[in-house]
Amino acid sequence: MPMPTDTASAQTITLRRPDDWHVHLRDGAMLAAVVPWTARQFARAIVMPNLSLPVTTAEMASAYRERILAALPPGAAFTPLMTCYLTDATDPTGLRAGFAEGVFTAAKLYPAHATTNAAQGVTDVALIRPALKAMEEIGMPLLVHGEVTDPAVDVFDREAVFIERVMTGLVRDYPGLKIVFEHITTADAVGFVDGCGPLVAATITPQHLHINRNAMFAGGLRPHAYCLPVAKREVHRLALRSAATSGSPKYFLGTDSAPHARGAKEADCGCAGIFNAPYALESYAAVFEEEGALGLLEGFASEHGPRFYGLPLNEGQIVLERGDNLVPAELDAGQTRIVPFHAGQTLGWRVREAR
Ligand code: DOR
Ligand code: ZN
């Protein structure tokens, strides 16, 4: 897609319509409240399967897909791409059938207890060998929440230790498996992904490009800056910004937008997750502009993901225009309210139209 050559002074940016390669859409009233935000910007999204009753079968994924489609605003052109939640008991035959039928696009590996609704996740990757073998054979991507859950490991080291203890072995033992290292947060992960072949890629969220771990403690405890994997030191944020704006096809957009009601975050034991869907593209555009790389935003947002997944590029376009975009302090979500990422801040781009 042609970009203005002088992107630094451009007043509008027209991009091929982007996709979100990692999103939590939830269910019920929350789904109805949040899916319009994602559908407004993105043509497709990889939908995470960590509902309170995890999406572990093709039947469940089909039914969830129907609920998502039913919750879309009239006329929305949005395709949810469904994922299978892997457990110790995942049946490789069901995975193969779900992928062959086009119900599953990928499968998600949550280490057991790593995050929200991950209690039924995988306790040891050795137990899902048949599933991983099948996925390698049929070209079904494995999406990885890359954190160890060993309580002896410092929370800020869980991704780096996961690389040593799990990722390295996965890449070695399944050389033909497509792997997406989801929502990477460290320079270690960037180094790992860069050092692997083309079958290993990563998504990067807006929040990990904007904030470091100090944001959680700025003048007090800030629950709306808390997600998992947790933001790390500044050196890691800078490594992520370099990776995202490098033009490498290994890195693509995945918001990890993870809505929780305000009260569920502002609590004794607040939930992990940042709701960034409403201003996602504007948030990424700010980063690419700050890095002098607006010309590389389209690859990251709209091209690298589909190429990795082997899906067609979108035909539509989205137009961003320069201008103050004040993010509200909170948004209505049915009977509840959600605090969005960048609440109270003014972003410098806004979505004018998607077509
Ligand atoms: O912060 C997060 N929230 N990280 C995850 O891995 C899950 C997500 C959620 O579902 O709330
Ligand atoms: Zn997620």
Automatic annotation (TrEMBL):
Cofactor: Zn(2+)
Gene3D superfamilies in alphabetical order: Metal-dependent hydrolases
Residues with PTM N6-carboxylysine: K108
Catalytic residues as annotated in Swiss-Prot or TrEMBL: D256
InterPro entries the record matches: Amidohydro-rel, DHOdimr, Dihydroorotase_CS, Metal_Hydrolase
Domain Amidohydrolase-related: 20-317
Zinc is among the record's keywords: yes
UniProt binding sites for Zn(2+) 1: H22, H24, K108, D256
Biological or metabolic pathway of the protein: Pyrimidine metabolism; UMP biosynthesis via de novo pathway; (S)-dihydroorotate from bicarbonate: step 3/3
Enzyme Commission number(s) from the entry: 3.5.2.3
Cofactor comment: Binds 2 Zn(2+) ions per subunit.
Residues involved in substrate binding: H24, L25, R26, N50, H145, L228, H260, A272
Binding residue positions for Zn(2+) 2: K108, H145, H183
Any Pfam family: Amidohydro_1
Reactions this protein catalyses: (S)-dihydroorotate + H2O = N-carbamoyl-L-aspartate + H(+)
Domain of life of the source: Bacteria
NCBIfam families: pyrC_dimer
Biological role stated in the UniProt entry: Catalyzes the reversible cyclization of carbamoyl aspartate to dihydroorotate.
Protein name (record): Dihydroorotase
The gene coding this protein: pyrC
